[in-house]
Amino acid sequence: MLEVLKVLLDPNTQWILFGCMLLGLSSGVIGSFAYLRKQSLMGDALSHAALPGVCIAFMLSGSKSIFLFIIGAAVAGIIATFGIGYITRNTRIKQDSALAIILTVFFGFGIVLLTEIQHSGTGNQSGLDKFLFGQAAAMVLSDVLIMGLTSIVLISICTILYKEFKLISFDPGFARGLGLPVGFLEQLIMFLMVMAVVVGLQAVGVVLMSAMLITPAVSARYWTEKLSIMVVLSGIFGAFSGFVGTFISASGNNLPTGPLIVLSATSLFLISVVFAPRRGILSKLLLRFFVRKNFKAKEDVHGLKRKERAL
């Protein structure tokens, strides 16, 4: 118990906990709409596409500025979203193939730039390789404040435009018939995903950030049939995953924070798969058991009645 209090009372750990919880909360909220719109791979593509933006920002500035890295990653993510949209609209290539093309091209370009930087004179001081898997322990107060501000903006926009996002997620044709700017709203969701990915790069990393967008949303889907409850649960699951992963990492053993956060989210997903009240495996097994039991009881009753009639 004393060790737990010691970890929680450490000022640096408190900031990292707060930042990772905000990251999980905002990622879970915007990830719900990405999941409903069948764009689960979009987060993966955007997170990988952010790497060349980070590298170019470092090459232009010559300094490791988190703010400049975020700008570079955001620009690269926006270019990737427009690239995916252009390929999908103007060719016969489907969206999943367009996602794969953008993901591999941008990530390959980012690895080339990263290798070039690491072999340059300032490569050892750049630390850009930490953006592959994240390094939450390196976050400072300014990083947490940026994550907090971004999370507040994300959640506020999703709250204000909840009805519009709901319409284009379930029936974009009907939304277009109502006069809603469907194209703009779709690009806005993409941009919000870019923001969520960018602020999570330092904590979770390029490779694992997509899991923070989708896993909480998938877990929440098992527990409810209502979108509003699903969005709230997804945010709660994301924040809880951020807290648990960061706490385990800060407790010792030099374990990486980002992978632990993702593993915590995956554990919640497994719990949801097994124990969810209506969709869970256990619930379905119990339902089948009781249905078979009732059916057998009715068969026994009918059998007794047939015997009585025969006598």
The chain-level mean pLDDT equals: 82
- Enumerate the spans where pLDDT stays under 50 for 5 or more consecutive residues: none
Describe the sheet with the most strands.
Answer: none
Strand content: under 5%
Order of helices and strands: HHHHHHHHHHHHHHH
What is the top-level CATH class? Mainly Alpha
- Report how far the terminal alpha carbons are from each other: 73 Å
Secondary structure class reads mainly alpha
Q: What is the annotated CATH architecture?
A: Orthogonal Bundle
Overall shape: globular
CATH topology: ABC transporter involved in vitamin B12 uptake, BtuC
Number of helices: 15
The CATH superfamily turns out to be ABC transporter involved in vitamin B12 uptake, BtuC
* Number of DSSP-assigned strands: 0
Radius of gyration: 24 Å
Number of domains: 1
Percentage of residues assigned to helices: over 70%
Descriptive notes:
With 311 residues, the chain is an all-alpha fold. The protein has one domain: Orthogonal Bundle (ABC transporter involved in vitamin B12 uptake, BtuC), CATH 1.10.3470.10. It is built from 15 helices and no strands. The chain has helices at 2-9, 11-36, 40-61, 66-90, 95-118, 123-126, 130-133, 141-160, 162-170, 172-177, 182-200, 209-221, 227-250, 257-275, 281-310. Helix 2 (11-36) crosses helix 12 (209-221) and helix 3 (40-61) crosses helix 4. The mean pLDDT is 82.
